[in-house]
Amino acid sequence: MKKYIAIILFIAIVSLIVAFFAFGNDVPPPDVASINYAVRTATETGETVDYIYMLTTQLTQAFNDMNAERHRREGAMQLFLYIFICVFSFASVVFCLYLNRRILKPFRKLQYFAGAVAAGNLDLPLKMDESNLFGAFTESFDLLREELKATKEAELQASQSKKELVASLSHDIKTPLASIKSSMELLLVKSKNEDEQEIFGSINGKVEQIDDLVTNLFLATLEELQALTVIPAEILSIELSKLIQSADYNGKVRPFSLPGCVIFADQQRLQQVLDNIISNAYKYANTNININSFIDNEYLVIDIQDYGAGVPDEELPLLTGKFYRGKNTEKCMGYGLGLYISKYFMQKMAGELACKNHECGFTVRLTLKLA
Predict the structure, then answer these.
(1) pLDDT of residue 288
(2) pLDDT at position 272
(3) DSSP assignment letter at 28
(4) Cα separation of 369 and 111, whole Å?
């Protein structure tokens, strides 16, 4: 910017200097010495007419020269003014373009950038220009954007983690609650003492109350979650057997064996999947449960079979939908989330969950990817 101002000042100063030297002097007057000499000679010799004629001729020529010089200078002045105006206008246009490119345009970018940041768009970087006079200022704004983005991402991640923790714990609490409820119902049936029955009934009622509260908490949290975190890792099939046994709190699963292999899954999420499936078998079938498994190419396939009434074929594709419950589940409490969450977890572990009827009941097939 300084160099453009210096160029314009230089042009103006040089123009003034040239104009001073070119037009600062007056137009030269007629030759006074020649006129005086002619008058004095005419007076001494008496040849007045001839010298007056000569004097008139000289004066006429002198005034003609003066007019010619005046016209030349006026023409030169006009030409100089035209050139000066053109050069000064060109320099002014260049200077305005320079101001627009180096000052106004960067400020417009900053204005647009500030509007984007205010609107929450922190992914739009502010491009740097080495020739920008406000380069350091621009860089500071972009650093501010990056800090705001990092802070926002950390805040969202923390909030997401809290919600996932609440949802996960809420859902996991339901499994031991179901076990307690089942045990209380069994004790209530076996007990012959009225006082014990009253106590067991009270405990059973409180368990149902806690279950409702936990479910409400889970549903409220689930609505805000975009996804539940799944972190797959290598797991031995013997560990998978332990997960199944842990989910079978009523002892309905018949003896089974799994092929020796290593699967790729999130152990905590897989436990939730098995808890949901076996709990559903307890709730809707209340029969023994068979587990069959085999290896199919790069997957371990596990069929979890009960011997209940099964599900109408037209409802099978809907079972893994959010909040969907079959027509035959009216007498059983539930919210239609178990298979929905289980299918989501299986897909996140590069596996799959499918439901089908078999000749004597209902089957849930888990497909787990081999490591």
Answers:
(1) 93
(2) 85
(3) P
(4) 52
- Using an 8 Å Cβ cutoff, are 207 and 180 in contact? yes
pLDDT of residue 27: 46
Instruction: Using a cut of 0.85, tell me whether the model's pTM lies above it.
Output: no
CA 297 to chain centre: 40
DSSP of 141-185: HHHHHHHHHHHHHHHHHHHHHHHHHHHHHHHHHHHHHHHHHHHHH
Query: In angstroms, rounded to a whole number, what is the distance separating the alpha carbons of residues 333 and 12?
Result: 93
User: Please, which residues bridge with residue 302 across strands?
Assistant: 293, 366
Cα–Cα distance between 174 and 32 in angstroms, integer? 127
Q: How many helices (H) and strands (E) does the chain have?
A: 9, 6
Angle, CA 354 vertex, CA 262 and CA 300 arms, to 5°: 15
Residue 282 has what pLDDT?
A: 87
Residue stretches of the chain with pLDDT short of 50:
27, 226
- CA dist 252 and 272 (Å) reads 18
CA distance 203 to 226: 36
Report which secondary-structure segment, H or E, holds 283.
helix 267-284
| H or E stretch at 88 | helix 48-99
Distance, CA of 365 to CA of 234 (rounded, Å): 20
